[in-house]
Design brief:
It is globular and about 50 Å long. The protein is mainly alpha-helical and 137 residues long. Helix 4 packs antiparallel against helix 6 and helix 5 crosses helix 6. Helices cover 81% and strands 0% of the residues.
């Protein structure tokens, strides 16, 4: 079932790039990111509240909170740089290079989480890295 959510994530990430490129025309990329973030905040909290999931706030550990904050900072920086890249570059170039994050995540999951590297993951990461190099040069 995880792969259905992953494919939906890819679909909406793709739509995000297209809609963002249209939406940032003539707009400061940081302002555009801030507006987008407000919408994401409303949608995410709307889902949490509608599903009654806010009661889980009390069970968060200090580690949960710290790493969710760090993850939020990383997400924010990623979006700021992504929107700036979209503003000055072509979506067909920026979006594929942004997906280098997939290969980096494979590497970081090995280093920080101790996950095993499979041949499929290694080959996939190498192909993404090669594709990124092709898109940049």
């Amino acid at each position: 079932m995880w792969w259905i959510y992953a494919l939906l994530s890819a679909l909406f990430a793709s739509l995000t790039a297209i809609f963002a490129k249209i939406g940032i025309t003539g707009v400061n990329s940081n302002l555009a990111t801030a507006i987008r973030t407000i919408i994401i905040l409303m949608v995410a909290w709307g889902i949490v509240l509608a599903r009654g999931e806010a009661k889980g706030l009390g069970s968060l550990s200090k580690q949960n909170i710290i790493f969710l904050i760090i993850s939020g900072i990383a997400t924010g920086l990623s979006w700021i740089f992504y929107f700036k890249a979209l503003q000055i570059g072509k979506v067909s170039q920026v979006a594929p290079v942004d997906k280098l994050s997939v290969a980096l995540t494979v590497i970081l999951s090995i280093v920080f989480l101790g996950e095993a590297l499979t041949w499929k993951a290694a080959i996939g990461a190498l192909l993404i890295i090669a594709g990124t190099v092709v898109m940049i040069i």
